[in-house]
Amino acid sequence: MQVLTKRYPKNCLLTVMDRYLAVVHNMEQVVMIPSLLRDMQLSAHGSQAQAGSSDLYSYFTMLKAIRMDVEHGLLPWQEWQAKVAGGKANGVETEAGETEEPEEERVSGQLDLEAQLHLHFASLHHILTHLTLKAEEVTRRYQEKTGQAM
C-alpha cells in the first residue's frame, strides 16, 4: 500500500483526500483482473446484499473515476452538464434558470457563506471517508476471491 508522505492534522480535508488517493491507488495495483469483480456484491454476507445493488466492478470503476476528479479537478460546469445530458439543449435551459435567482436567496446565501462552507466541507470529508472504506472493501474482497488475503 502506498504510504502517505505528507503530514496534515487528522481531520484535515487534505489528509482525507491523500488517504483516499492512496487507497484507490492500492486497489488499482491489487486488482489485476477487474472482470473478476463482476456479479460480486459489496457485502460479504449474501443476506445483507440488497437486490439491485451495484456489484464490485461498478464500485471499482466509480472509485477510479472519482480518483481522477480528485487528482485532476472537475470538468467545467457546462462541459460536465453536456456530458451528462448528452447535448447542449439542457445546458441552455439550466443556465437560463440559474440567472433567475430570487433576490432574497442571493442575500441569505451571502450572509451564511461560512455555514455553507462548513456544511460542504463536512459533507466532502464524510463522502471521501466513505469512499475510502468502499475502496478498501473492494480490495479485500478481490484478495479473498483470488486467494491473496493478507
UniProtKB/TrEMBL annotation:
Gene3D superfamilies: 6.10.140.1610. It comes from the Eukaryota. This is Thyroid hormone-inducible hepatic protein. Belongs to the SPOT14 family. GO terms for cellular component: cytosol; nucleus. It is found in: Cytoplasm; Nucleus. Keywords: Cytoplasm, Nucleus. One of its GO terms (biological process) is regulation of lipid biosynthetic process.
